[in-house]
Structure formats: structure tokens, C-alpha cells
């Protein structure tokens, strides 16, 4: 894997070759990654893995035509062939009035923001093994846990470099550390399984493996002997484990490509009240040590913190250059891409801000409610917002978590859910997409 400076240089050189060969514009993206991981089960080493790879993608433009090619071979001979092949493909591609690089005045200039995304710690396989064993042992020590599906620990790093023919060239490195355990509680047909995991940019920020394991065991045991509630309308609370899925549906609905294709249930909602007053949804690519932090987007556009929902109102779309041109707006700094394809739009550190009431207050807001801790299936229509998913969780009565429930479905429409939901105050930044406990006052609950 190259260093950030080497990656920047090779991307810049490939762009220069593309222009010299006759392309009207060009960009190149290098992605390198490496990881080490250890898996254990029932106290025994089950697997040790290590991987390292790199890929560079070149996009060349011939007027309003473009093509992208990629290679994991960075030899001089292959890169020279890459330029010729990409330009030939671009000249045969259909014209597209919306293709092109991001406007040069929006590109990031100067020093990159300090995101503290790189940790010098490099755990050895023995250290990873010890962490995985400690995590699994803590899970197995929870009374009621009867088996394990394994524990794991990992360490990874990545290099990203981007260069464009408009003079942008930059690279950055990030690292990651993770730990997880999955266990089974109970016996026979009554067995239940659950898991816990945590990941962080810096090893010092990673949860203690024993705490992760205990959490996995306690979750599995709590789900023993589930029942099904009587079908009907219930208030439904989404635990922070699953609440970010609602943000995922929102992000998809405000992507520039979905809006431009008119396939979004939020198509006509720009500037309107989509959520209740007070609700805020933020995208923050510059969060220090954030799991999805980035100093620039996939087209080199400068990034900044944005409130996409402010006091419940939809303030804008997420758009890379192509969909932004279709919509008649500037690119929003949300371009994301792999080496072998054109950019799309995606959020970075995306979260719903905490609300004023505590989780306990939301649990006690109704005499009876359903708390969801697991969602199953993909039953969401992105065009209409119709929502129906399998789920498991717990009944809540008079503010207290009661018996577990499983094999149920929850259904509503996302427009209605968004308009009435309330976030609790228990927001924690633990993923790339985060939300506190979320209460939806009414959903249809039935048998799966």
C-alpha cells in the first residue's frame, strides 16, 4: 500500500497522462486498504486473517462523454494502457449534458482539516486474539448464555487520494479498530441469539472488550421466551441500535439522483415541514475521529457541517456534480465513490440531534408500547414511503420494559412517521449514522 504522498503523486500523474493523451478533463482516485483480524470461538482460535489491496480508477472526459476504468495493477505498463483504453471508451460513450468535474471554485484549497483519523497503534495478532477472547469470555459468563457464534477483533487502515485536471490533488489516511461477540442463549427451539460490537478510529476510544461481550450476552438472554403482541396500533420506539435505519431511508430520499429521477417520496418537500418542529438532522464530515469523517468529498469539493433538517424543515438535497446539474443547484459536498465508478451522493457522519425528553420519559409516554431492537427485511418503498418490516423487541408497560416479542411486523408510511416522531436525549456517536431512541406515536403491529 502506498503512502499518502505516493498515492497523491500517482493519481496526479495519471490525470496528467489523460490530458496529454487528448482528454478534455480527468480525475483519478486511489484507494488502498489493509487489515488484520482474529476470530475465536468457545475459547479457541478459529481464524487469523490479513489483507492488503489497492486500486486506482481513472475517469476521462471527451467533451460531454466520459468513461471510467480501474486497475489493481499500478505498474507503469498497465497505467499507460489504462489511459489509452479509458479515452477510447469515453469517445464511444453517449453524450450526457450533466457529466463533468465539480466546479473548480468549490474544490478544497489549502491545508486539509485536522480530523485525527489516524492512530499509530498497530496491534499484533496476539493482542487481537487476547481482545477477542476477552470479549467472548465475558459474553459466555452471562447466566443463560449457552453457546457462542464467535468473538472477533480487528485493526485496519486506508489511504484515499484524489486528483483532478482542475488542479486539485490531496490524500489522507485513516485507521480503524473493532471488537465484537455473538452468542446464543437458551436451549433447543427456544434459543435466541444476539451480538454486540464497537468500532473506533483510535484504539483508545474502543470500548473495553469485556463490556462489549457482557452486552452481547445480556441482550441474548433478555430475548428468551418471546411472545407476540395482539395485532393493532401501538406507539413504537426504535432503540439506538435500529433507529439509524430511519436516517438511512431519509438519506436515500434526499439524494440528488433520486430527486432528479423523481423516485423519492420527499420529491416536493424542499423547504417544507417534514419532521416535527425542533427535530434536526445533521451531516458533519469534519467531526474529529468520526467514523465517516473526510477532509473533502469524492470530487474534491470542500465539505462542512450541514443541517439537512432544521427545526423540522427540509433545507436541501445531497448532490454530487451530475445530479446537481440536473437539479440546477451547486454540488453539496456529498460526492462518494469507488475507484471503478462515477460518483454518487452519500452522507458522512449523519445523525439526528438529541431531543429534550429522556429515553425513560419516552418509554413512559404511553401505557403500552413496543420497543424495537432488531429489524428484518427491506420492506420500504422509496417512491411512496410505505414502510413494513419484520421486527423483534420488547413490550413496554407503564414505562417498564416487559416481555420480549418476536416474529412481528411494524408498518406505517415514512411521511407520517417523520412528521410525528420524537427523538430522546440519549444520543451517542458510535457509528457513522447515529440516532437516539426514537418514538413514533402510532404504527400498525402484526404477526410476521
UniProtKB/TrEMBL annotation:
Belongs to the peptidase U62 family. One of its GO terms (biological process) is proteolysis. GO terms for cellular component: cytosol. Residues 120-224 form the Metalloprotease TldD/E central domain. Residues 231-446 form the Metalloprotease TldD/E C-terminal domain. PANTHER family: METALLOPROTEASE PMBA. It comes from Sphingomonas lutea. GO terms for molecular function: metallopeptidase activity. This is TldD/PmbA family protein. InterPro entries: Metalloprtase-TldD/E_C (IPR045569), Metalloprtase-TldD/E_cen_dom (IPR045570), Metalloprtase-TldD/E_N (IPR002510), PmbA (IPR047657), TldD/PmbA_N (IPR035068), TldD/PmbA_sf (IPR036059). SUPFAM superfamilies: Putative modulator of DNA gyrase, PmbA/TldD (SSF111283). Residues 34-90 form the Metalloprotease TldD/E N-terminal domain.
Amino acid at each position: 500500500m502506498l503512502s499518502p504522498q505516493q498515492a497523491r503523486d500517482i493519481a496526479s500523474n495519471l490525470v496528467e497522462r489523460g490530458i496529454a493523451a487528448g482528454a478534455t478533463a480527468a480525475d483519478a482516485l486511489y484507494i488502498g486498504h489493509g487489515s488484520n483480524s482474529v476470530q475465536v470461538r468457545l475459547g479457541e482460535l478459529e481464524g487469523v486473517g490479513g489483507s492488503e489491496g489497492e486500486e486506482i480508477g481513472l475517469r476521462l472526459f471527451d467533451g460531454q462523454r466520459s468513461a471510467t476504468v480501474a486497475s489493481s495493477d499500478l505498474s507503469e505498463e498497465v497505467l499507460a494502457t489504462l489511459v489509452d483504453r479509458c479515452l477510447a471508451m469515453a469517445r464511444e460513450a453517449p453524450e450526457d449534458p450533466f457529466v463533468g468535474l465539480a466546479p473548480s471554485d468549490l474544490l478544497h484549497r489549502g491545508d486539509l482539516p485536522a480530523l485525527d483519523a489516524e492512530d499509530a497503534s498497530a496491534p499484533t495478532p496476539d493482542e487481537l486474539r487476547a481482545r477477542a477472547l476477552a470479549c467472548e469470555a465475558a459474553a459466555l459468563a452471562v447466566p443463560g448464555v449457552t453457546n457462542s457464534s464467535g468473538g472477533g477483533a480487528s485493526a485496519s487502515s486506508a489511504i484515499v487520494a484524489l486528483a483532478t485536471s482542475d488542479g486539485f490533488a490531496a490524500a489522507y489516511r485513516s485507521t480503524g479498530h473493532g471488537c465484537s461477540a455473538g452468542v446464543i442463549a437458551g436451549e433447543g427451539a427456544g434459543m435466541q441469539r444476539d451480538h454486540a460490537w464497537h468500532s473506533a478510529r483510535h484504539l483508545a476510544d474502543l470500548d473495553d472488550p469485556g463490556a462489549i461481550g457482557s452486552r452481547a450476552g445480556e441482550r441474548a438472554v433478555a430475548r428468551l421466551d418471546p411472545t407476540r403482541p395482539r395485532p393493532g396500533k401501538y406507539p413504537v420506539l426504535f432503540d439506538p441500535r435500529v433507529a439509524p435505519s430511519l436516517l438511512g431511508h431519509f438519506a436515500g430520499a434526499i439524494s440528488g439522483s433520486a430527486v432528479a429521477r423523481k423516485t423519492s417520496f420527499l420529491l416536493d418537500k424542499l423547504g417544507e415541514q417534514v419532521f416535527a418542529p425542533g427535530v434536526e438532522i445533521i451531516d458533519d464530515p469534519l467531526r474529529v475521529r468520526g467514523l465517516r469523517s473526510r477532509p473533502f468529498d469524492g470530487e474534491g469539493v470542500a465539505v462542512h457541517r450541514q443541517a439537512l433538517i432544521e427545526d423540522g424543515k427540509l433545507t436541501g438535497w445531497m448532490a454530487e456534480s451530475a445530479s446537481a446539474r440536473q437539479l440546477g443547484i451547486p454540488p453539496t459536498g456529498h460526492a462518494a465513490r469507488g475507484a471503478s465508478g462515477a460518483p454518487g451522493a452519500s452522507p458522512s457522519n449523519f445523525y439526528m440531534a438529541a431531543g429534550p425528553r429522556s429515553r425513560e420519559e419516552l418509554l413512559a409516554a404511553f401505557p403500552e408500547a413496543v420497543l424495537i431492537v432488531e429489524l428484518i427485511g427491506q420492506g420500504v418503498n422509496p417512491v411512496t414511503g410505505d414502510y413494513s418490516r419484520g421486527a423483534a423487541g420488547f413490550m413496554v408497560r407503564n414505562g417498564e420494559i416487559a416481555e420480549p416479542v418476536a416474529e412481528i411486523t411494524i408498518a406505517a408510511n415514512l411521511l407520517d412517521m417523520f412528521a410525528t416522531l420524537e427523538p430522546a436525549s440519549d444520543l451517542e456517536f458510535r457509528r457513522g449514522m447515529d440516532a437516539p431512541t426514537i418514538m413514533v406515536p402510532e404504527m400498525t403491529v402484526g404477526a410476521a
